[in-house]
Amino acid sequence: MTRDVAATADRLPALDIRKLLTDWWPGLLGFAALAVPTIKTLAGQAWVRESGAHGPIVLVTGLWLLARQLTAARASARQGALWLSALGLILGLAIYVFGRVFDFISLETLGLFGVGVAMLHSAFGVAALVRNWFPLFYLGFAIPPPGWLIDKITAPLKQFVSEVAMRSLYAVGLPVSRQGVTIYVSKYQLLMEDACSGMNSLVGLTAISLLYIYLLRGSSIRYSLLMTAFVIPIAIFGNILRVMILILLTYFFGDEVAQGFLHYTAGFLLFAIDLVLVFAVDSLLVRIVPRAWRPA
Q: What's the sign of the alpha-carbon dihedral 274, 279, 284, 287?
């Protein structure tokens, strides 16, 4: 059964912003004092890179979704245990301060996330947070993963993507070869960057796909996991095509053309194609998967 999001939204009670600000202004002011410098750092570091381009989208849509869901939960909300909220707040602040002092943006953002969850727990209770788990899970995609983790994951992906792209073009007669993550074509050599490994589009594509599934289909964990299993190969396939396009552009038009405007255009175009493929897979799966796996 397809979820009627618009109808559900119409039934939600209005959020009393004035009462919220009156009751929670000290906490909101304190949270803003932590969040503003973190967002400024994210905007100057993680969000300007392709690996973090999805961050602002996730943050804005995640906060909207969280406000929308918790507005509906206000009537049945119960204040969380004080000791648990305090523990979460202390841990979140400790992680935040450590990340801020030592310039670990991943830990700083994680700590800010923990502080926010502790405040929400204090206001709504654990039951409301569990019922509305998806917005919090989705907002987790706005936390930039640490560089060492990205390097560890992208290394084998870069090898795989470059190998498949090279062999595919070599099979049709293009003079292309590979050594490690360096691809040689004619007189040019291309060094595979992390952006071409598939990891960057994988994170962003997974986040946007899960939001799409949640809004359209509901919060079925089984169905979300099933769709994620399809998102992974779609993202990798898209990056194989991206590398092939860059090799072809380099071979026929030169390195300057391939590394210029068309380099980024190819990335955005293939990301859009990946999204279309995700939508197509969703339309197919919702008709053929067993009833127990279908979203409600």
A: positive
**How much is the pLDDT for 12?**
38
What is the model's pTM? 0.79
Per-range mean pLDDT, top range of 3-7, 67-71, 81-85: 81-85
Helix ranges (DSSP H) in the chain: 5-11, 17-44, 55-73, 82-101, 105-124, 126-131, 133-139, 147-171, 199-217, 221-253, 255-258, 261-288
Other CB atoms within 10 A of residue 229 CB: 9
CA distance 136 to 130: 10
Q: What's CA 243's distance to the chain center, in Å?
A: 22
Structure confidence by residue, pLDDT tens digits, 193-214: 644 555 666 788 888 888 888 8
3-state secondary structure of 290: coil
Q: How many C-beta neighbours within 10 Å does residue 172 have?
A: 7
Backbone angles phi, psi at 196, to 5 degrees: -95, 0
Q: Provide the mean pLDDT of the chain.
A: 81
Strands 182-185 and 176-179: antiparallel
